């Protein structure tokens, strides 16, 4: 399924995402006060269905996703996906024990949305910085449903079927809260082409480091 | 590492004094060494400034080179430099301690700027790690000794530029590392990457680079500080481990109880039918585990590190749904980072093993149930069978017996073990049992023997046993054949009675004919006497006598068949006998049949009753005549025959020498069915009245009684040959056959002697008495033994006892004779018998001096025998 990106480009992209995710994890760690395990990110260009299948492969339960669209030189959508049952745990982890269950339930969607926004903002912001570009981020939305539905949500019908997407897959897991999730980034072909250019310039700028100054 | 090889060195040029100085400074040097100080001690009193000792750090950091420069500068320059640093080109500055102390010159290598703690560096060097620092503003990259060595730098503190740094990285890894460094320079905090480092001597080593970016006061990246760790060995081990895992189908995983994901290997994913990823959600793995089976993950860690429970569980593969058996093994380790327990383990497929075990189990169960079923069946047979079962050891003792013993012989099976089978068999049959057991011991596969056994109630039962050898002993099954034997006996009896009926019927027919002749003659004689026609009497008498003679011949033949005729065996020359018969034979068979004889000239003698042999020969010739109605050739042959074992067995004779007499014809022959019956009494092929059918059976009886045999060869349409075998006799030459008696001797006047006549048949007694009277004897008569004995006692001695053998009243003729001899020793005895009963007559009749006269006899013969006894 690996198309479009060369190995070097993929390494570069992985590096960029790594930086962004590190920042996001650090934010989350500060927010929750618990250890957060992050997997080494994997970046693949695959079909929308394959991306959905990859998640579905691993999760049988309903999912919940915080969705944030981004626009700029390259556009797309970033998702923080959690098993729906994990949502409550995350809310509890964020809010602490000071609120009771009823309150936590009432605040669940809002908390989830804000937490997702924090993680995704960090991630996308860092990436944009790295690529020396700026991105406009939409307000976060919350989606419920099966993986295919989450990936399709808000997409035009023809994209649903034929879309080839960049799927950044990062697995995270929070200690003692039975929370795990994925960060996915979906981009269409024109945005991918643009991203590729940016990555190329990132690579060449890195090559310039040899001269001694960034 | 090389530092530790030179912890303390002395210059050989120092001599004894230096040696003692060295002794004194030793403890100091050790202390400096431990502190990691780069220090050298020189003998300042000598112009060549010999080295008394130095620390490893001094050597490692280029001290010897600086020292050499100092010596080149000379002792004066050295003295000037005391209290400050001595600097020379391309060597590190050497700091000389102020003022010599007892002639000792102390040199140290001062700390360089920007370098980390040297003790840490020493430790890094020892651990195969190098420390380095990248000053972003200047692009200056420098590191410790290890870093310098790995990067081909001459000394610690020497610097590289970024292009030099990247040049030391394997081309295949270079871009990746540059990207990583690029990330650090643009805001990433941490960097941890593995790459291949190219050494100055051409070696390639795998290193792990861990780097952190330190910002300056403005938050901009200022310097990268990091370490390089040699992981070549680790890489090799990893590679070996990876190959072992993939080749062995072993998936590895790590999981800290409490976390929702586990770090897994590619093989781990493949075992579950998942795409290879580095992390898997715990619930996903659990969802593949079959319901009721344990998860490979634990909910809570154990109390202490150590081996974890080994688990086998079933899964349904995520990709194709195939059920598999997997095995989990592993250990809990103390996590270095978090000090918590972390499970590190492996997963591998054991489906084949489990299935093989299951198959084996099923097979075993099936086998067990089949065995149980078979055992039940056998047990039923054992319990229900009416046949006796006996399991015996090698000595024939009972190991076990079935319950049938109770019903069949009244013996409880439980009491039998230990009892020898022989003890259960009737004594008469024990030899047969022993023979059967011996046969089994010598490898007999299937031995059958019929044994009589004693029932608990005392009756006898016959059992037919089939025995087979079994391990150390034998197994025998016995069927009660008592009833069968009885039935067989009854059948034989009824067959005998049938034969007797046939015999008596035939006899009655023949006798009635003869009686009619005799009776008719007597009536005619009566008529003639009444009419005074005496002249006609002799013809009737002749007729009656003829009938009586035929009747006598008939009974004789009967007895011959019964083998109870009284044989008067004489050594006989068969050739002579046949020769004497030829005329009679020729007359009997008629002129249309030619006789041919072939005599063995040196024919052996045989012992037989000559009259019977004549009779037999005549019979055979007459049969031959009847078979050759249209004429033919009658051949009479004699021969000597020595029968070997096999030939004798075929003839049912003991192996010995025999004389063979053969009568062969060229007549009609007989078919097999007829041949089978020819020896039966009254069997005849002749028309009614043509013969009694006793001919061949008589011949057979005579041959058997004489210790010989008869065999018939016959082909229908070609002829018949009857062979008569008679045993060879080795005694003296035969006497001439006695001449047949003609008629009664003439009556003699006067009393010639007294005879006691004992016979229970009044008519015979009357006839004999009249004959004896006629012959001039005085006759005393009694009708049984007791009467006879009484008469002997009362009437006084007699000259001859004439007694029938078969007497009524409990005393037979022989016994009477014995008793009479008690009364009158030496009494002459003539016994008259209807048949030869050896038991009655006794085997010793010759020495007992008792004469025998077989009934029927002619009165002339009778009187001649009496006369011979009473001369």
From TrEMBL, chain A:
Alphabetically ordered keywords of this record: Chemotaxis, Hydrolase
Keyword set includes Hydrolase: yes
GO biological process: chemotaxis
GO function terms (MF aspect): hydrolase activity
Entry keyword Iron: no
Superkingdom classification of source: Bacteria
Organism taxonomic ancestry: Bacteria, Pseudomonadati, Pseudomonadota, Alphaproteobacteria, Acetobacterales
Protein name, UniProt field: Chemotaxis protein CheX
UniProtKB/TrEMBL annotation, chain B:
Annotated catalysed reactions: ATP + protein L-histidine = ADP + protein N-phospho-L-histidine
PROSITE patterns, per the entry: HIS_KIN, PAC, PAS, RESPONSE_REGULATORY
GO molecular function: phosphorelay sensor kinase activity
Domain PAC: 191-243, 309-362
Positions bearing 4-aspartylphosphate: 804
EC number, UniProt record: 2.7.13.3
Listed name of the protein: histidine kinase
Source species of the chain: Teichococcus aestuarii
């Amino acid at each position: 399924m690996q198309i479009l990106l060369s190995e070097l480009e993929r390494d570069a992209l992985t590096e960029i995402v790594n930086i962004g995710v590190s920042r996001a994890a650090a934010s989350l760690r500060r927010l929750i006060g618990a250890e957060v395990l992050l997997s080494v990110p994997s970046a693949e260009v695959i079909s929308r269905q394959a991306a959905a299948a990859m998640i579905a492969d691993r999760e049988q339960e309903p999912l919940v996703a915080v969705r944030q669209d981004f626009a700029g030189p390259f556009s797309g959508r970033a998702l923080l996906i959690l098993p729906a049952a994990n949502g409550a745990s995350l809310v509890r982890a964020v809010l602490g024990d000071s609120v009771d269950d009823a309150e936590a339930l009432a605040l669940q969607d809002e908390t989830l949305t804000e937490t997702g926004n924090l993680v995704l903002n960090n991630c996308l912001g860092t990436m944009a910085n790295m690529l020396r570009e700026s991105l406009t981020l939409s307000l976060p939305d919350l989606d419920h449903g099966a993986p295919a539905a989450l990936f399709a949500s808000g997409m035009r019908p023809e994209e649903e079927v034929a879309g080839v997407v960049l799927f950044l897959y990062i697995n995270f897991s929070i200690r003692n809260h039975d929370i795990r999730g994925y960060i996915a980034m979906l981009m269409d072909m024109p945005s991918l082409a643009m991203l590729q250019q940016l990555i190329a310039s990132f690579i060449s700028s890195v090559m310039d480091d040899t001269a001694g100054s960034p | 590492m090389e530092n530790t090889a030179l912890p303390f060195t002395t210059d050989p040029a120092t001599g004894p004094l230096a040696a003692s100085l060295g002794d004194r400074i030793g403890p100091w040097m050790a202390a400096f060494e431990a502190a990691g100080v780069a220090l050298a001690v020189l003998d300042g009193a000598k112009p060549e400034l010999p080295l008394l000792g130095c620390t490893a750090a001094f050597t490692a950091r280029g001290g010897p080179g600086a020292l050499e420069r100092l010596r080149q500068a000379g002792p004066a320059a050295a003295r000037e430099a005391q209290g400050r640093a001595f600097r020379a080109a391309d060597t590190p500055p050497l700091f000389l301690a102020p003022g010599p102390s007892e002639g000792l010159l102390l040199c140290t290598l001062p700390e360089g700027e920007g370098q980390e703690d040297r003790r840490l560096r020493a430790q890094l060097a020892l651990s195969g790690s190098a420390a380095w620092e990248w000053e972003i503003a200047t692009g200056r990259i420098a590191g410790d000794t290890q870093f310098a060595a790995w990067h081909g730098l001459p000394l610690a503190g020497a610097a590289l530029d970024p292009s030099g740094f990247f040049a030391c990285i394997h081309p295949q890894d270079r871009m990746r590392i540059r990207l990583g460094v690029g990330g650090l320079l643009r805001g990433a905090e941490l960097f941890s990457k593995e790459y291949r480092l190219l050494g100055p001597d051409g070696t390639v080593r795998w290193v792990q680079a861990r780097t952190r970016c330190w910002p300056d006061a403005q938050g901009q990246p200022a310097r990268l500080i990091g370490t390089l760790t040699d992981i070549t060995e680790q890489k090799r081990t990893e590679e070996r481990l990876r190959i072992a895992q993939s080749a062995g189908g072993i998936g590895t995983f790590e999981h800290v109880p409490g976390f929702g994901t586990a770090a897994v290997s590619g093989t781990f994913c493949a075992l579950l039918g998942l795409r290879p990823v580095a992390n898997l959600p715990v619930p996903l793995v659990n969802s593949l585990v079959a319901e009721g089976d344990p998860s490979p993950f634990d909910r809570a860690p154990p109390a202490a590190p150590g081996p974890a429970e080994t688990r086998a569980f079933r899964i349904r593969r995520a990709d194709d749904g195939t059920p598999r058996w997997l095995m989990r093994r592993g250990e809990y380790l103390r996590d270095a980072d978090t000090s918590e327990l972390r499970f590190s383990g492996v997963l591998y497929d054991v489906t084949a093993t489990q299935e093989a075990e299951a198959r084996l189990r099923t097979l075993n169960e099936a086998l067990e149930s089949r065995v149980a079923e078979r055992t039940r069946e056998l047990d039923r047979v054992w319990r229900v069978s009416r046949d006796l079962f006996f399991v015996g050891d090698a000595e024939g003792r009972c190991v076990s017996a079935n319950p049938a013993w109770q019903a069949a012989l009244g013996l409880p099976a439980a009491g039998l073990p230990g009892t020898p089978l022989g003890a259960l068999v009737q004594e008469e049959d024990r030899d047969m049992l022993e023979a059967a057991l011996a046969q089994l011991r010598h490898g007999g596969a299937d031995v059958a023997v019929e044994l009589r056994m004693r029932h608990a109630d005392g009756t006898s039962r016959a059992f037919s046993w089939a025995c087979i050898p079994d391990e150390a002993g034998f197994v025998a099954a016995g069927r009660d054949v008592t009833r069968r034997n009885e039935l067989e006996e009854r059948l034989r009896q009824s067959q005998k009675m049938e034969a007797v009926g046939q015999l008596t019927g035939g006899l009655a027919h023949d006798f009635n004919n003869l009686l009619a002749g005799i009776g008719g003659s007597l009536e005619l004689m009566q008529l003639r006497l009444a009419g005074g026609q005496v002249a006609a009497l002799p013809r009737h008498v002749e007729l009656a006598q003829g009938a009586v003679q035929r009747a006598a011949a008939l009974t004789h033949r009967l007895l011959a068949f019964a083998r109870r005729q009284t044989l008067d065996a004489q050594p006989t020359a068969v050739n002579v006998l046949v020769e004497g018969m030829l005329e009679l034979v020729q007359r009997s068979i008629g002129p249309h049949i030619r006789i041919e004889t072939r005599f063995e000239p040196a024919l052996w003698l045989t012992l037989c009753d000559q009259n019977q042999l004549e009779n037999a020969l005549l019979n055979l010739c007459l049969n031959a005549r009847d078979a050759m109605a249209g004429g033919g050739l009658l051949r009479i042959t004699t021969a000597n025959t020595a029968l070997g074992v096999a030939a004798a067995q075929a003839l049912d004779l003991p192996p010995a020498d025999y004389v063979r007499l053969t009568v062969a014809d060229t007549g009609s022959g007989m078919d097999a069915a007829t041949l089978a019956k020819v020896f039966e009494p009254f069997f005849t092929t002749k028309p009614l009245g043509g013969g009694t059918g006793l001919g061949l059976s008589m011949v057979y009886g005579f041959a058997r009684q004489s210790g010989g045999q008869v065999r018939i060869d016959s082909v229908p349409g070609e002829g018949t040959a009857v062979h008569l075998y008679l045993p060879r006799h080795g005694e003296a030459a035969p006497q001439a056959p006695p001449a047949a008696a003609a008629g009664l001797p003439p009556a003699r006047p006067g009393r010639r002697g007294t005879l006691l006549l004992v016979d229970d048949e009044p008519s015979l007694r009357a006839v004999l008495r009249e004959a004896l009277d006629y012959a001039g004897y005085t006759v005393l008569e009694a009708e049984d033994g007791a009467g006879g004995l009484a008469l002997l006692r009362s009437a006084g001695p007699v000259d001859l006892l004439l007694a029938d053998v078969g007497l009524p009243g409990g005393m037979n003729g022989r016994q009477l004779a014995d008793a009479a001899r008690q009364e009158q020793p030496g009494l002459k005895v003539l016994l008259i018998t209807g048949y030869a009963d050896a038991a009655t007559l006794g085997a010793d009749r010759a020495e007992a001096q008792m004469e025998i006269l077989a009934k029927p006899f002619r009165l002339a013969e009778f009187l001649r025998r009496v006369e011979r006894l009473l001369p």
